[in-house]
Amino acid sequence: MRKKVTIVGSGNVGATAAHWIASKELADVVLIDIIEGVPQGKGLDLLESMPIEKRDCRIIGTQDYADTANSDIVVITAGIPRKPGMSRDDLLNTNHKIMKDVVGKAIQHSPKCILIVVSNPLDAMAQCLTRWMRWRKPPTRWRDCPASA
Ligand SMILES: NC(=O)c1ccc[n+]([C@@H]2O[C@H](COP(=O)([O-])OP(=O)(O)OC[C@H]3O[C@@H](n4cnc5c(N)ncnc54)[C@H](O)[C@@H]3O)[C@@H](O)[C@H]2O)c1
Asked: What is the pLDDT of residues 14-28, one digit of tens each?
């Protein structure tokens, strides 16, 4: 059976990740975002490109975490990116709240998933996630994606 990857946040990073996963036929993809219509639209565009690319992935966009159930991997790209003049640390308060909210919902539906964190500031996000996950039994597996320079 093909693997299932959920990508939380359907912005630049999330949509690009979905594109690569689908183009290499690595897994079925669920795109999720708080903005209604965005994951649905991006997901549909990708899905319709599958026959042209001779690929066979199921891609959906949604606001409902029930659609993400039993994902093998959940990639967290939700949050705000830097604007000119900002450092990654300026994103901490906002993205910490978002991360806590989305991770809670995602692991409720996919308790055995591997979590991959992308949102910045990455080191702090990964550290928070490690602490939250230590409380879980069995502990959730997680990975962080090294921040670019
Ligand atoms: N680790 C790395 O190497 C790396 C590289 C690039 C970007 N980033 C980080 O990744 C994050 C995303 O960057 P981007 O360029 O894709 O930003 P973006 O603004 O294009 O996309 C972020 C998406 O997250 C969504 N979002 C916000 N709150 C949400 C929530 N509660 N639930 C679901 N979706 C939510 C937004 O609606 C938006 O569509 C940023 O924090 C950025 O700094 C990390």
From this structure: 999 999 999 999 999
pLDDT at 146: 59
Q: Distance, CA 98 to ligand 1 centroid (Å)?
A: 10
User: What are the extents of the domains in the chain?
Assistant: 4-144
Taking only the tens place, the pLDDT of each residue in 92-130 is 999 999 999 999 999 999 999 999 999 999 999 999 888
List the residue whose alpha carbon is closest to atom 3 of ligand 1: 147
Into which CATH architecture does domain 4-144 fall? 3-Layer(aba) Sandwich (3.40)
Alpha-carbon span 100 to 104, nearest angstrom: 6
Please give the number of the atom of ligand 1 that sits closest to the Cα of 10.
39
